[in-house]
Specification:
The chain is mainly α. 72% of the residues lie in helices and 4% in strands. Strands 1-2 form a two-stranded antiparallel ribbon.
């Protein structure tokens, strides 16, 4: 049981990706019929941002600051004050990730692109460490490394899909603002909340 808990917490990026899929599945199952592609994509994207960016990088920030010695050991690093700075940067990305699901395409773009730069850069560092230092510690060469590559790809694909739906005027996102014809300024409902059309 201890090993299972350690695996779940140590591979938090995979854990939170799965939790996001579960929440998405519940929302999709409860959505009005007939089910449309924009609704499916919105539910997947919404919970992906919330869990795989928002919760994940607050968690990452906590570990790189409060639990920095254990975090460094898992990655195969020497502990350093730079790691604490990394933790605060991660926490900032996490906070934006908790806000962005309820916001516009531009806000989502503004969180996905920095995450992609951060994670693909981190993946490059991990690859160099594997080759140059033979560092195959779980935090350097395991599931975390794989999700460093996969999570940005998923985010960019969802951005591309939302962009296309908004240009077509079919987006189910809370604040669609790329439509060629803007909606009227009356209130509308999305995800059970009332928003005012922009």
């Amino acid at each position: 049981m201890r090993n299972v808990i350690f695996f779940i917490l140590g591979n938090f990026t995979l854990t939170l990706l799965i939790i996001g899929l579960i929440f998405s599945a519940v929302d999709i199952a409860r959505a009005q019929r007939p089910l449309t592609a924009p609704v499916v994509v919105e539910n997947l994207f919404f919970w992906f941002i919330f869990f795989s960016i928002g919760v994940a990088y607050l968690y990452n920030g906590f570990f790189h600051t409060v639990m920095h010695e254990m975090s460094a050991k898992m990655i195969g690093w020497e502990d350093s004050p730079f790691q604490i700075e990394l933790g605060f940067a991660s926490a900032g990305l996490g906070l934006v990730g908790l806000i962005a699901p309820w916001k516009s395409f531009h806000m989502r773009f503004a969180v996905i692109v920095p995450i992609a730069c951060f994670l693909w850069g981190a993946a490059g560092v991990h690859i160099h460490s594997m080759i140059a230092e033979q560092n195959f510690s779980p935090g350097n060469a395991g599931i975390i490394f794989l999700t460093d590559i996969i999570v940005p790809l998923i985010g960019l694909i969802f951005l591309w899909l939302q962009y296309g739906y908004e240009k077509e005027g079919r987006s189910a996102a809370p604040y669609p603002n790329l439509r060629s014809v803007r909606p009227h300024r009356g209130p509308h409902t999305c995800r059970g909340r009332k928003f005012v059309g922009l």
